[in-house]
Design a protein that fits this description.
It is a single chain. The protein is an alpha+beta fold. It folds into 3 domains: about 90 residues, TATA-Binding Protein (2-Layer Sandwich); about 80 residues, Endonuclease Iii, domain 2; about 120 residues, Endonuclease III, domain 1. Helices cover about 45% and strands about 10% of the residues. The strands form 2 sheets. Strands 1-2-6-5-4-3 form a 6-stranded antiparallel sheet. A two-stranded antiparallel sheet has the order 7-8. α4 crosses α13. It is globular, with a radius of gyration of 19 Å. It binds a DNA duplex through α5, α6, α10 and α11.
DNA sequence: TTGCAGGGGTCAA
DNA sequence: TTGACCCCTGCA
């Protein structure tokens, strides 16, 4: 099953942006705070301003299934944001299937508006290398500094933002001051990753077209990329929904809600594969958000 | 004020 | 299987 659906979204152009109507299963807070992305900041009006694919936009979701996106137009929506927000997928159906399990039903209730973004694989790779044994606020900060150092400046509302640097932006860089981005021991991994992608030794587009198992193996050739980071890249930027990234939170929540015992990382991903199959990635996101909201497993 | 644990893992021994 | 690893925050 592919869970795709006929799109019934109505697009209306307004001054500085667009309004989308008939958008189901979309909650900005759930989407931007479920751990999949690091470049979206909450504003005072509960909207989120973020940077992706070299653009800055502001997104606000409303209870009546309307979404307002500022600093964009219909053309960019069709070209970039429709796919980025995975608007062609029927999350209602996914939730219905997963809700056959009572525990999942409860978790989904907390994050009912989660959607898995289709992010840029290159940016996702570097971002999740930085995420290893790190805190969210620190990860976001490092990515921001890294972007300021090497990425293109974008002005929006009188404020300067920086696009995540493309591999081209980095081609002649020395990286003598890479440590300024405060990524600590991960800096050496970042440099190695840049070299491997830049030289073509690793081809992310090719990996995206591989089967999940092969793709994970290939990603793990990059230093700083282990199982968890590889699975995040696969899920958040390569549409491999049969993945179940296991970090400390997923270990806690899976043990507490399903396995009812201590277990190893391998056991947890085996369990997920068995139980959720090709919806593992979606289940993972609902559970992750639920676990963090309720601090499950953390005494 | 200082000191120490620990955080959305990975690597090397 | 285990400890080190940058950097920073929270808390004693």
């Amino acid at each position: 099953m592919d869970y795709l659906k006929q799109n019934s979204i109505v697009i209306e152009e307004i001054k500085d942006g667009i309004i989308l109507k008939n958008v189901w299963d979309f909650n900005a807070k759930h989407i931007f705070e479920c751990g999949q992305c690091f470049r979206w900041d909450k504003e005072d009006d509960d909207s989120y301003t973020g940077i992706a694919f070299g653009k800055v936009i502001n997104v606000k979701s409303f209870k009546n299934n309307e979404i307002k996106i500022l600093n964009t137009n219909i053309e960019d929506f069709k070209r970039i944001w429709f796919e980025y927000f995975d608007l062609g997928r029927d999350y209602s159906r996914i939730k219905k299937v997963l809700s056959a399990d009572d525990t999942m039903k409860l978790a989904i209730k907390h994050g009912e508006g989660i959607r898995i973004l289709k992010q840029d694989p290159w940016e996702t790779l570097i971002s999740f290398i930085i995420s290893a044994n790190n805190r969210i606020s620190m990860i976001a900060r490092s990515i921001n500094i890294f972007s300021q150092m090497y990425g293109q400046a974008i002005i929006y509302n009188g404020k300067v933002y920086h696009a995540f640097p493309t591999i081209k932006d980095l081609s002649d860089t020395e990286f003598s001051n890479i440590r300024d981005c405060k990524a600590g021991f991960r800096c050496k991994y970042i440099i190695e990753a840049i070299k491997m992608i830049g030289s073509g030794e690793i081809d992310l587009e090719k990996i995206k077209n591989m089967e999940t198992i092969e793709a994970e193996k290939e990603l793990k050739r990059i230093p700083g990329v282990g199982s968890k980071v590889a699975n995040c890249i696969l899920l958040f930027s390569m549409q491999k929904y049969d993945t179940y990234p296991v970090d400390i939170w997923m270990k806690r929540v899976t043990e507490e809600l399903f396995l009812k015992r201590e277990s190893k990382a391998g056991e947890i991903s085996d369990f997920a594969k068995e139980k959720f199959n090709d919806l593992s990635g979606f289940a993972q996101e609902y559970l992750f958000y639920y676990a963090r909201e309720l601090k499950i497993g953390k005494e």
